Amino acid sequence: MKSIFSFFTVVVLFVSCNEPKDTDNCHYKIKFKNNTAKVLYLYPAQDSVIPDRDIRTDPYFKPTPAHAGNGTIEAGTIRFTGGGKPMCIESLYPLEQKFYIYLLDSAAISQISWKEVVDENLAVKRFDISVKELQKNDFLLEYREE
After folding, report:
1. Quick one: 51 exposed, middle or buried, by C-beta within 10 A (0-12, 13-18, 19+)?
2. H-run or E-run covering 143
3. Residues 91-108: pLDDT tens digits?
4. 101 Cβ contact list (under 8 Å, min separation 6)
5. In whole angstroms, how far apart are CA 74 and each of 4, 52, 53, 57, 137?
6. pLDDT tens digit string along 120-129?
7. CB proximity list for 145: less than 8 A, separation 6 or greater
8. Count of CB atoms within 10 A of residue 31's CB?
9. Rounded-to-integer distance, Cα 119 and Cα 45, Å
10. Please, which residues have CB within 8 angstroms of residue 22's CB and are 6 or more apart in sequence?
11. Are residues 70 and 35 in contact, defined by beta-carbon separation less than 8 angstroms?
12. Strands 29-34 and 81-82, how do they pair?
């Protein structure tokens, strides 16, 4: 009896720890291709100004490596959560509603306060995008230095 209980416990833990899979109507992440030599932070927001929350110390926001999505380097991802659980982007935003993704150069902002990042709008790029536009791009964003 103990072995059956242990088996089911392991199965439940394994299934609950797996990353949710995207479907045609539900995408849990946006893939990001970084075509630069910079290590970037990707910061999704509903507002058109950089949010006040400093993401550099937040373990949820991992920097995207230089050249991510090129060669053998895995593409970066932007994940969406609600209440600590993965959420479909389509359930968070109406198809036409714009939301924003800020790209921040990790080296450029490493030695300054977050207030300065916000006050001086130090994002290297801001994507103004909707779910409908993401669908056209297969939920992939790319960044090249201009």
Report:
1. middle
2. strand 140-143
3. 888 999 999 999 999 999
4. 30, 42, 43, 44, 45, 78, 126, 127, 129, 141
5. 38, 29, 27, 22, 18
6. 999 999 999 9
7. 35, 36, 38
8. 19
9. 16
10. 28, 29, 139
11. yes
12. unpaired
Supply 96's token pair.
């036409």
pLDDT for the residue 12:
44
* Cα 20 from Cα 10, distance rounded (Å): 18
Q: What DSSP string describes 58-112? A: -TT-PPBPTTTTSTTSPPEEEE-EETTEE--HHHHS-TT--EEEEEEEHHHHTTS
Distances, alpha carbon 91 to alpha carbons 21, 26, 87, 94, 106, in Å: 15, 8, 7, 7, 30
Across 28-32, 81-85, 108-112, 113-117, least confident range: 81-85
The whole-model pTM stands at: 0.79
Number of helices (H) and strands (E), helices first, in the chain? 5, 8
Environment class of residue 134 by beta-carbon count within 10 Å: exposed (0-12), middle (13-18) or buried (19+)?
A: buried
Q: What is the DSSP letter of 22?
A: P
